[in-house]
Amino acid sequence: KMDDDDDIPQLSSHTLAALQEFYLEQQQREGMKTSQGFNQYSIGSIEEDWQLSQFWYSDETASCLAKEAVLAAGKGGRIACVSAPSVYQKLKEQDGEDFSVCILEYDRRFSVYGEEFIFYDYNHPLDLPENLLPHSFDVVIADPPYLSEECLQKTAETIKYLTKGKILLCTGAVMEEQAAKHLGVKMCKFIPKHSRNLANEFRCYVNYASGLD
């Protein structure tokens, strides 16, 4: 009779050690988060999920875009972040400022943000809660998850529904013509950076006089 243990795949001691180290690091990170009165809004508090095509902006870019959004929204303004969670997190760091913000996002981990979180799937661009009134946001910042015309076109429906007029779009440089076609936005000089380098050149597009030139 065969030994029952034979068909259990054995991890090498090296792999096991690496795994243990990984888990230990993870625990330490979690521990640090709680011990430092962890800021749930800081970038990196929710890790990127590449399977959802998530790529966080660098801290500097997120700050710059958040600042632009606040200026564009004006005093007491409303800002919608569509698939742009790192900008949302930056906006939340400026608590007490005179604006309000919502995050429309497919990744339900962001539901930790409570009522400001709206589950959003670009495949159903107008499947939005009733209390999200049309043209109720002073500015909409959007970063469609995929570089495809279909994704841009559907996200554009959502943006046009939400915005009173101002649009700040972040997407690949290759999308310039489609962005103009679907949203009437033009490329800015400002070049957004990500915390990890992406293969595709990324750009910002606006349809108003912004501070990004």
Automatic annotation (TrEMBL):
**Catalysed reaction per UniProt?**
L-lysyl-[protein] + 3 S-adenosyl-L-methionine = N(6),N(6),N(6)-trimethyl-L-lysyl-[protein] + 3 S-adenosyl-L-homocysteine + 3 H(+)
Set out the biological process GO terms recorded for this chain's protein.
methylation
Localization recorded for this chain is: Cytoplasm
A Pfam short name: N6-adenineMlase
Q: Where is it mainly found?
A: cytoplasm
Q: Do you know which PROSITE patterns this protein is assigned to? A: N6_MTASE
Kindly state one GO CC term assigned in the UniProt record. cytoplasm
GO molecular function term, any single one: nucleic acid binding
| Domain of life, per lineage | Eukaryota
Record's keyword terms, sorted: Cytoplasm, Methyltransferase, Transferase
Alphabetized PANTHER family for the sequence: EEF1A LYSINE METHYLTRANSFERASE 1
Q: Name it.
A: EFMT1 methyltransferase
- Name the species this protein comes from: Agelaius phoeniceus (Red-winged blackbird)
